[in-house]
Design brief:
With 257 residues, the protein is mainly alpha-helical. The protein folds into three domains: 5-74, no CATH class; 80-172, no CATH class; 176-253, no CATH class. Helices cover 55% and strands 6% of the residues. It has eleven helices and four strands; from the N terminus they run ββααααββααααααα. The strands form two sheets. A two-stranded antiparallel sheet has the order 1-2. The protein has a two-stranded antiparallel ribbon with strand order 3-4. A hairpin with a 2-residue loop joins β1 (5-8) and β2. α5 (105-115) runs antiparallel to α9 (188-215), α6 packs across α7 and α6 packs across α8. The longest helix is centred in the C-terminal third of the chain and has 28 residues, at 188-215. Residues 179-199 have low confidence and may be disordered.
Length: 257
């Protein structure tokens, strides 16, 4: 984002750059940009948010000169150009990323739940993928700290990385959760749309259900949630393949097609 400077009398105000905006601050700015209403009033609000100029001093600024500023472009972020780091400094402390594929199954269930929530999705997701400080074991508290102190550039980079990793893992094990077959006489377009929605719900809702199903064979639910994610997914794949082979053998022996 380009530097924007306002000089009012003897006071100079500098608009914050992207790497100075917290997740919360960025959300407030985006909310103003996307809101309906008078453009000049929106620009006043943006200048107030970005440069922290008091409202009573905004009237002496030639707001009309900023009407052509493309704030959406200034605030756009290309996360592919921001390297992922092993640790992130929040409130003066270093927080380290977990090894994604080494996470426990219970954490995976939590992660999928919070990714689907509409409020504080980014901070809640990130909070479950970094190792908490010894003094902050509450992930909700950690999520709050992330929202107010982690800059938006690092936040989006982390969030996009987590989302992409999750999508790749689900694709790798997509055979575990298949949506039910739709009726043939339904409209093709509506069927495809329903399948996409159903598949997403099946994948996300299936993780918790799978823990209860596995509990009949592996210790108990709490113990299963403490197992490594990949170990559980591999075991689930084994059980599914074994059941499919047994069914195929039974159908062949009984001439079932």
């Amino acid at each position: 984002m380009e530097k924007i400077i306002f000089k009012l009398g003897d006071t100079t105000y500098k608009a914050k750059s992207l790497n100075q905006l917290s997740i919360n601050e960025h959300q407030e700015v985006v909310k103003v940009i996307n809101a309906e209403g008078d453009e000049l009033q929106k620009i006043k609000e943006l200048i107030h948010l970005l440069a922290e100029i008091p409202y009573d001093k905004l009237d002496i600024i030639r707001i009309s000169s900023f009407i052509l500023i493309d704030f959406k472009k200034l605030l756009s972020i290309d996360t592919t150009k921001i390297p992922l780091r092993k640790s992130y400094r929040v409130e003066g402390k270093d927080y380290y990323l977990r090894e994604f594929n080494e996470m426990k199954y219970g954490k995976w269930i939590d992660l999928n739940y919070f990714i689907k929530q509409k409020e504080n999705t980014m901070s809640n997701t990130i909070a479950r993928m970094i190792i908490p400080d010894d003094n902050i074991n509450d992930t909700y508290k950690l999520s709050e700290i992330i929202r107010t102190d982690l800059n938006i550039m690092d936040g989006l980079t982390l969030f996009d990385t987590i989302i992409n990793w999750r999508a790749d893992l689900i694709k790798q094990y997509e055979g575990l959760f298949e949506p039910p077959t739709e009726e043939e006489d339904e409209d093709e377009e509506s069927v495809e749309e329903e399948e996409n929605v159903q598949e997403d719900e099946d994948v996300d809702g299936g993780w918790s259900n799978a823990a209860y199903e596995l509990a009949e064979n592996l210790l108990n639910v709490d113990a299963i949630k403490e197992l490594p994610l990949i170990e559980v997914l591999n075991y689930m794949s084994y059980k599914k393949q074994k059941a499919e082979k047994e069914k195929a053998a039974y159908d062949k022996a009984n001439n079932i097609r």
